[in-house]
Write a structure and sequence with these properties.
There is one protein chain. With 241 residues, this protein is an alpha+beta fold. It is built from five helices and six strands, in the order H-E-E-H-E-H-E-H-E-E-H. The structure holds calcium ion (CA) (2 copies). The site of one calcium ion has 8 residues, from loops. One calcium ion binds next to loops.
């Protein structure tokens, strides 16, 4: 018969203790798993912000959901920021965002306006449906009426020549000076009235309802140049070209 020594008792006690700890540990792990499962099942997904860039254009309509639209009258529906071009074809006008600059008392276009004239030429060449543009010159009310009328005519003829030099067909452009008779209704300075405008007279085989001169110019006897007949519309481009 064997006697269990003190060391043997200690060993058995140790085994029992470690077994009890393992059991306790195992129960604890089960408890952790259960807790985790419960947490997952009760999680509510965070609400999705329908307009993360805050530009008011939602869902698929916003082509740039993380970049806000720049509302500037140019492509304001796609939800993407953009830079408004200096030259924009509208329904009845080719709008320019800056003035064509001329030398003082001269029809010479200043060199700083050369890139603007380039851009106008490019836009007109890209829009063959715009068949006739009246290039209208206005002066500020400084100096004599007759002198201003002549200067505005010479200035728009310079603009037309610049566009023709850049490849725009001459018969798409009609220069018309109007002197100082037609100031802008909301002008705050006389300088704003010195301007060149581009009015679309014919488009896609149709004459547009455009006022060629203000009543003051007509009353002053300003003669409007005769227009050529409306040319046939440009043939439609074949699909895929
Ligand atoms: Ca825009
Ligand atoms: Ca956007």
């Amino acid at each position: 018969m064997k006697t269990i020594t003190g060391t043997g008792i200690a060993l058995i006690g140790g085994l029992l203790l470690s077994g009890a700890m393992a059991c306790a540990s195992g129960q604890k792990r089960v408890a952790v798993v259960r807790t985790k499962t419960m947490t997952t099942s009760t999680t509510v997904p965070a609400p999705v912000d329908p307009d993360p860039d805050g530009d008011g254009i939602l869902g698929d309509a916003d082509k740039c959901p993380k970049k806000a639209e720049l509302v500037n009258g140019f492509q304001d529906e796609d939800g993407c920021p953009d830079v408004k071009p200096r030259v924009l074809v509208k329904l009845k006008t080719v709008e320019i965002t800056e003035h064509v600059q001329f030398a003082n008392n001269s029809a010479e276009i200043k060199p700083e306006s050369a890139s603007l004239i380039n851009e106008i030429a490019t836009v007109l060449k890209n829009h063959p449906e715009v068949q006739l543009v009246e290039v209208v010159g206005h002066a500020s009310k400084v100096g004599k009426a007759k002198y201003n009328l002549k200067l505005t005519q010479q200035r728009v003829e310079s603009v037309v020549a610049g566009l023709v030099n850049r490849g725009v067909a001459k018969d798409r452009l009609n220069p018309q000076g109007l002197g100082f008779y037609c100031p802008l209704p909301n002008a705050t300075t006389e300088a704003e009235n010195r301007r060149v405008e581009f009015n679309i007279l014919y488009r896609n085989g149709k004459a547009l309802d455009v006022e060629r001169a203000c009543p003051a110019a007509i009353n002053a006897g300003v003669e409007l140049s005769k227009l050529l007949p409306i040319p046939a519309p440009a043939p439609a481009k074949p699909a895929g070209s």
